[in-house]
Amino acid sequence: SQQGEEDPQALSIQEGENATMNCSYKTSINNLQWYRQNSGRGLVHLILIRSNEREKHSGRLRVTLDTSKKSSSLLITASRAADTASYFCATEIQGAQKLVFGQGTRLTINP
Amino acid sequence: DGGITQSPKYLFRKEGQNVTLSCEQNLNHDAMYWYRQDPGQGLRLIYYSQIVNDFQKGDIAEGYSVSREKKESFPLTVTSAQKNPTAFYLCASSTTGVVIYNEQFFGPGTRLTVL
């Protein structure tokens, strides 16, 4: 199975609610990154958290990292219709100069 | 405008044909990457290059080939040996050949369909 596994695979919420997505991984990492993909488009980088960091914020985004549990979460607060997209976590594994992507969470924000 | 361009946006291939997907960047990035994405799936790494005239196989390199003759260009050839090439192909670049702490910038993708 892949290094990064996301949960849930799909999430549907009402506009204004908060959305939480989780990512688990198997091996030690240098950093973990979150990306967004609108349908049929390329990926857009959202936030990067280093292995020695526990929490990071960027606007309405909050990312946490628990290296002891090998897991991360992405929280989007006060969701908007424009947040509808797929969200991927990507891990940079120690010793490997590449990113390994999870299968993504499809987020739908209902107006 | 700075960024990554991919062409064409849509590509149709007959079985047995080789096709080449273009990827160009003007971000002055050293590293470039090719990924494959199947419906509802994540990205899988095909090839990557950390510097001009050098590249490495990713996780699913069989049936694909690349070249890196110029810093700004990293074309991908899908050969007839690739048995199931229908997919969405994404090119990316990053600031240095060492990924540590660096984000990747993605192009808009090429959707390849085998007829």
Explain what the structure shows.
The complex is a heterodimer of chains A (about 110) and B (about 120). With about 110 residues, chain A is mainly beta. Chain A is built from no helices and eleven strands. Chain A is globular and about 45 Å long. Chain B has about 120 residues and is mainly β. Chain B has strands at about 5, 10-15, 20-25, 30-35, 45-50, 55, 65, 75-80, 85-95, 105, 110-115. Chain B is globular. Classes of the chains: A mainly beta (about 110), B mainly beta (about 120). At the A-B interface, strand 4, strand 5, strand 9 and strand 10 of A face strand 5, strand 9 and strand 10 of B.
Using brief descriptors, characterize the structure shown.
heterodimer, A: 111 residues, mainly beta, six-stranded mixed β-sheet, five-stranded antiparallel β-sheet, B: 115 residues, 11 strands
Summary?
The complex is a heterodimer of chains A (111) and B (115). By secondary structure, chain A is mainly β.
Portion of residues in helices of chain B?
under 10%
Q: Order of helices and strands of chain A, N to C?
A: EEEEEEEEEEE
Instruction: Name the average pLDDT of chain B.
Output: 92
Amino-to-carboxy terminus distance of chain B: 35 Å
Order of helices and strands of chain B: EEEEEEEEEEE
Q: Biggest sheet of chain A, open or closed, and with what strands and sense?
A: 6 strands, mixed
Distance between the termini of chain A: 35 Å
Are there runs of chain A of 5+ residues with pLDDT below 50, and where? none
Strand residues, percent of chain A = over 45%
Q: What fraction strand of chain B?
A: over 45%
Mean pLDDT of chain A: 93
Helix segment tally of chain B: 0
Counting H and I runs of at least 4 residues, what is the number of helices of chain A?
0
Unreliable stretches of chain B (pLDDT < 50, length at least 5) are none
